[in-house]
Write a structure and sequence with these properties.
Blueprint lengths: L1 H22 L20 H4 L7 E8 L2 E5 L2 H9 L13 H5 L7 E8 L2 E5 L2 H8 L2 H15 L10
Antiparallel strand pairs: 1-2, 3-4
Length: about 160
Amino acid sequence: MNTFKSLLSGVALSVAMATSALAAGVELNASSTGLAMQGYDPVAYFTDGAPAKGSYKITTVFNDATYRFASEEHKAQFEANPEAYLPAYGGYCAFGAAMGFKFDGDPTYWKIVDNTLYLNLSKDIQERWEGNIPGFVQDANGHWANIADIEPAALQQ
């Protein structure tokens, strides 16, 4: 019964967050239910050196998005300093941001550079991005100010 209640609570939270996440703007790459990073634990990259799926039972909401965690310890670390663990460019693809576009970041293609988590779209894109990380980060930072609040599809017109 407790498992069912936890599942129901997680679903209810996700549904409740959908409207808030969509209304918050487009600078964050979250699902239509408000789930950030496809449910991956943002802290695990820094503490475990690898992506880890978070649990629907261990969540917190930050900037109208729901983050999941692999442990209560990770959740506590995130809540103490969320900005330290959030991916750059709202979780959108770092290479895409460098090109002035917003593509979904895949949490399994990642790298931490100067204590910042970057996600990329695919293995090929990750490899290309790694060929000039400082240049692509500089380009992405320059573009981000102009594209953060624009719908991804509008950037491709």
